[in-house]
Amino acid sequence: MKFKIALALTLLISFTQADETLLSQKLHELAKSYTTTLQAQDAYLVIMDVKTGHMVGASDSKSSDEDESLAKLKKYRFEPGNIIQPITYAIAIDYNKTTPDELLSGHKGKFAIASKYITDEYAFDYVSSENAVVHSSNIVAAQLGLRLDALELHDGLVRLGLKDIFEFDAKYKNNLTIQKLEYEIYRAVASYGYGFRVTLLDVAMVYRQFLEPTDNSFLDPTTTSYVKNTLIKAVKEGTGMQGNIQGVVVGGKTGTAHVIENGKYVNKYHTSFVGFAEDDTNSYIIGMLIVDPKKQTYASQTSAPLFKKTVEMMINMGYLSKSRNLK
Q1: What long-range pairs does 194-198 form, CB within 8 A, spacing at least 24?
Q2: How much is the pTM?
């Protein structure tokens, strides 16, 4: 009897590993296809089981080996842009600095801090904290960051798992420090993902907490519920609309940010999307990063459609099941 149980477990593990290897191979094909179509330098994809934190699949456009891709994902750091905005939003809500329905000034698309200007692609007169995330308002993200003091923003980022952004990076000449966060301009731009670098895995792990808060979670369950609903809205009617798919629950956030080389911003971009897809049984965090796409430079046009293709592939492979009741 014990032998039969052990054999069954061994076969189950073998089948699971085989499925995940196949998934990573499919992700590689998808990444390679999008890299070619967008004339990009590279593309990275990662899928994580929300309940366990297990990496279900990982790949990039240049390698079909999952372990090799994971090693790259742990090393490749980039300025994230607005995939950080839901994190700032969560910290601000948790510190009682805002509510999802609070209206904030959009400053008609141009917000002055000291001698600098923060701008938005779309000029809002007023917009709610929630809709600022949905539509990627840098200006409102900056205002929420300014409502937090340096210690609150620092501690919030660290407790959510982004402590590495405060560590010295010899290749990066714009490191974030708590001393810098004392200055309004650094706190403002950090709130929408500039002035520091992350890995795609870092952000995926934070987003997991929006769906599966633990007993020792930094965030209140009410906060995580707000953020999850905001991410769903961002895909239904915001910058992530091209990632929407019927039949499963999806949510997420786009990020578009300049590439920094030798301490200076250059005319290249990182476009990213971090989000989730779930059915009645399964839930996955899905992250993707496209490096220097030349045909399109906005994440809404690059990473969001790649997210949709990834979810469709997961449905076809049996990782997710569609429901007729979801639209």
Answers
A1: 194/79, 194/81, 194/257, 195/79, 196/79, 196/165, 196/166, 197/77, 197/78, 197/79, 197/80, 197/165, 197/169, 197/172, 198/77, 198/78, 198/80, 198/84, 198/162, 198/164, 198/165
A2: 0.92
